[in-house]
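A common beginner's mistake is to predict each chain separately and then try to dock the pieces by hand. The better habit, illustrated here, is to supply every component at once so that their relative placement is modeled jointly.
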Amino acid sequence: VGSNGFGSGNGSPRFLPFRSPERHYAKRHVGDILDIKVHVRESDDDAYVVELGGEIDVYTSPKVKDAITELIDQGHYNLVIDLEKVRYIDSTGLGVLIGGLKRVREHGGTVNLVCTNPQIKKIFDITGLVKIFGIFDDEAAAKKALA
Amino acid sequence: VNAPELSNDHLGTVELRIPSKPEWVAVARLAVAAIANRLPFSVEEIEDLKLAIAEACTICIQQGSGIKTIDIICDAATSHLRVEVRDDRYRNLGALGGAKRPTMSVAEGEGLGIFLIQALMDNLEYNVDPQYGTELVMTKRVGA
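With all components supplied together, the output reads:
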């Protein structure tokens, strides 16, 4: 086995690399790995749905904020934010949601949330945000309440 | 916050130092969850701990301009987990000796983060000071 560990020492590749050199040498940085998924789609009734997945914390919340800000800047003031695939949210994530709600309310809009995860609902309970946001079990109910 | 007297049921201390950057907060959160998992905490209690520790790290990052690292020191006991979170400015104060350490003061307006930690943990002492740095010491009891 050659010094590079890929079995090229004697010209006979008896030992195959356990992973490809491309993958081995692919440059990865901590900053490349964002554990957040943001998917925005227009609903059939003039509302926009922001589906979030993963973990919303001090690192990932700017990406969520950008998506919501972009929608509001485009003039969309009725939003459903789907937290069903969110495993974790902290105060910075809550701050982003509150900021979005404040902005859409200035234009007569609102933000409704879809959330059934008890741990996340508990955070909304503790902080009193259950009284500020409409929180629904499914997207249909959240959209219906926008009207 | 003075050094704690270790309880009779003390199991061990784990210390972690992370760069004071947002991308490392998840590491602190997961490490504390792994430690809590060694103790008889429920899944819900572990989730509370994860959030509280992440909030403490976030406060350190947001309050401290120029800080480089955050220490997370976990004292595990069969009955509780005590976690100290402090930035390097506060740590350096400790190295200067007790006389220069500030008395406990509470800065106003830390907001939702402190509120959440207080709600999720059984005890919280903290010092968030723009001049001296940030230190939060929190305890969660098993099954409380």
